[in-house]
Write a structure and sequence with these properties.
single chain; about 110 residues; alpha+beta; globular
Length: about 110
């Protein structure tokens, strides 16, 4: 696994199926709901579209890789509710890329 970002903000991780890190199993992002980065959301959507993937939230909601859809999901997430009411249990929204059944592989070359 490789991880980028910070524990208190946005981060990303990539999990691999093999020791050589050539076959990607999962790409995931944690988005800080208190300060959503439009640039990061744009890049996530672009990557998902290039890989023919959907986005899957921690609540198992499937999202199209469209910026406005992701922003709406952030605004409606438990994480956003925490920003407004800290009694809730989370301030980050997690999303994963999920391949369409007929899409090309996420293997790195």
């Amino acid at each position: 696994m490789r991880i980028w970002g910070s524990e208190s903000g946005n981060d990303a991780h990539v999990c691999y199926k093999d020791v050589e890190k050539k076959i990607v199993e999962e790409i995931a992002f944690r988005l800080d709901a208190s300060d959503p980065s439009l640039d990061l959301i744009r890049m996530i959507c672009r990557l998902a579209a290039q890989l023919s993937c959907f986005l899957l939230t921690a609540d198992s909601e499937i999202l199209q890789p469209v910026e406005s859809v992701v922003l709406t999901a952030i605004r409606n997430s438990a994480a956003a509710k925490f920003v407004n009411d800290p009694v809730c249990d989370s301030r980050s929204m997690h999303v994963r890329l999920v391949q369409h059944s007929s899409s090309p592989s996420m293997n790195s070359e």
